[in-house]
Design a protein that fits this description.
Layout: H1 2-5, H2 8-23, E1 45-48, E2 51-65, E3 74-82, E4 85-90, E5 93-99, E6 101-110, E7 119-123, E8 132-142, E9 145-164, E10 167-176, E11 181-188, E12 191-194
Parallel strand pairs: 2-12, 7-8
Antiparallel strand pairs: 1-2, 1-11, 2-3, 3-6, 4-5, 6-8, 7-9, 8-9, 9-10, 10-11
């Protein structure tokens, strides 16, 4: 055999080459630093005019079937509050807001009663049209009082809704009346209030 006739130094060198070729094919787990986290690991955040805010509270206000129009959507107002704000209730309805931050209010029209049907909602002027929203605002609050000098009206955009076992994921890409971009992502179980 050829291996018997080769000197020991050559055999050691060949073994080292084989070991290096095998180990160099393995991927180093520490080199993959640019992994984008999956949506389940995303932070609940909102970006308004290039400033980022952490989102905390989410609530749904159910007004029932929209009436007085040609459409048949169920009117549900979505409230999203930034970190540091809190909702208070009395008699099963929202009574007041405390803290400093921003409150997002979006009036959506769902095909389902009591919940936001999963899917894409788009801004539309027609009141009550299913899978649309209108009357959307972002309002600054200082010590629980709305600041009338800092209120942005949403003029266009989309809101993607998904939910599983009561846990909602909301992703909005909006534009305000100053033509500035507003985006947010929030995941959680919303507080639910009925106004029917």
């Amino acid at each position: 055999m050829i291996l018997k006739t080769l000197p020991c130094g050559y055999l050691a060198f060949l073994s080292l080459l084989v070991m290096l070729s095998v180990t160099s094919c393995k991927e180093d787990p520490d080199t993959n630093h640019n992994v984008i986290p999956p949506p389940s690991n995303r932070l609940s955040e909102m970006q308004v005019h290039n400033t980022t805010y952490r989102l905390d509270v989410m609530a749904l206000k159910d007004y029932g079937l929209a009436s007085g129009n040609a459409y048949s959507g169920h009117k549900i107002e979505l409230l999203v509050l930034t970190e540091g704000m809190q909702l208070f209730e009395a008699g099963g309805q929202i009574d007041s807001v405390s803290g400093d931050g921003k409150l997002v209010s979006i009036e959506l029209f769902s095909s389902e009663e009591g919940e936001l049907t999963p899917g894409m909602y788009a801004f539309h002027q027609d009141y009550g049209r299913v899978a649309t929203f209108n009357k959307a605002y972002i309002i600054d609050y200082i010590n629980g009082k709305s600041d009338s000098n800092s209120r942005f009206e949403i003029q266009t955009g989309t809101l993607r809704v998904s939910h599983d076992d009561g846990v909602y994921s909301l992703e909005g890409e909006l534009m305000d009346d100053e033509k500035k971009a507003i985006s947010f992502y929030q995941k959680g179980v919303p507080e639910y209030y009925t106004y029917k």
